[in-house]
Specification:
- This protein is mainly alpha-helical and 237 residues long.
- It has five helices and five strands; from the N terminus they run ααααββββαβ.
- Strands 4-1-5 form a three-stranded antiparallel β-sheet, covered by helices on one side. Strands 2-3 form a two-stranded antiparallel ribbon.
- A hairpin with a 2-residue loop joins strand 2 and strand 3.
- Helix 1 packs parallel to helix 3, helix 2 runs antiparallel to helix 3 and helix 3 packs across helix 4.
- The longest helix is centred in the middle third of the chain and has 42 residues.
């Protein structure tokens, strides 16, 4: 029945959105992804279902054009005084209307699915789960994110979106003193204890120089190491 494939796509979109959002929330609250315990990933792009819906859309378009043509011919018969065409004219009009509604609904389902996945990619970028554009498509991104689940067009969108944010963050004088991709939640503590997960070397802060060596611990201002936490180099303890 027309519309069933679109309904399946919407159900999958809702399940994908809920699952991915739970992973993102858990990562932000528990630092799971920063510690390498879990990967945040969007489920595989459903090419088969998308292609089947597109075939159905093309078939519905052909049906709608056919019924529209028949209706126009029957309208002409009515103008010519052929009374027997009245019943068929109503039937053809109903068939045309039903096919058109199914076609429009499938298109809206497709656009909703694409919008949902693009919103998920946006969230991953803003949360710092996507850092390195050069790893896209290789199956191994920063912070454990898997790019293989994205379609080719989604990978291209991800790279272009990330490039726009990088350019805005690095070139704009207006944002030169503000890290626009930093954590939007206010810190509960100004100073925090951290454990170094990877060798970084010396960093210069307002309160002195710290030599960040793996497995060492420091008491530092959170704003000075926020980016290192997002990138998975240090862990808040």
């Amino acid at each position: 029945m027309y519309g069933e494939l679109g309904n399946k796509l919407i159900i999958e979109a809702k399940r994908t959105e809920q699952l991915t959002q739970r992973h993102i929330d858990a990562s932000l609250n528990n630092d799971m992804n920063r510690n390498g315990g879990n990967n945040i990933s969007i489920p595989l792009y459903n090419d088969e279902l998308i292609n089947n819906i597109l075939k159905e859309v093309r078939q519905l378009k052909q049906n709608a054009d056919y019924f529209k043509q028949l209706k126009q011919e029957q309208d002409q018969d009515l103008l010519d005084g052929v009374g027997s065409a009245l019943a068929n004219e109503k039937i053809r009009g109903c068939q045309y209307f039903v096919n058109l509604i199914c076609l429009e609904r499938n298109k809206r389902c497709l656009m909703a699915y694409q919008r949902m996945r693009s919103d998920m990619i946006d969230k991953l970028i803003w949360n710092g789960d996507i850092e390195n554009n050069s790893t896209a498509g290789t199956g191994a991104g920063s912070k454990g994110y898997e790019y293989n689940e994205l379609s080719h067009n989604e990978q291209e969108y991800m790279n272009q979106y990330k490039n726009v944010l990088d350019d805005l963050n690095s070139e704009s004088e207006l944002w030169s003193c503000v890290e626009i991709m930093g954590n939007m939640n206010p810190p509960s503590d100004i100073f925090i204890d951290i454990r170094v997960l990877k060798d970084i070397g010396e960093i210069q802060t307002e309160y002195g120089t710290f030599n960040l060596v793996k497995d060492s611990q420091f008491y530092v201002r959170q704003s000075d190491v926020e980016r290192l936490i997002q990138q998975g180099y240090v862990q808040k303890i």
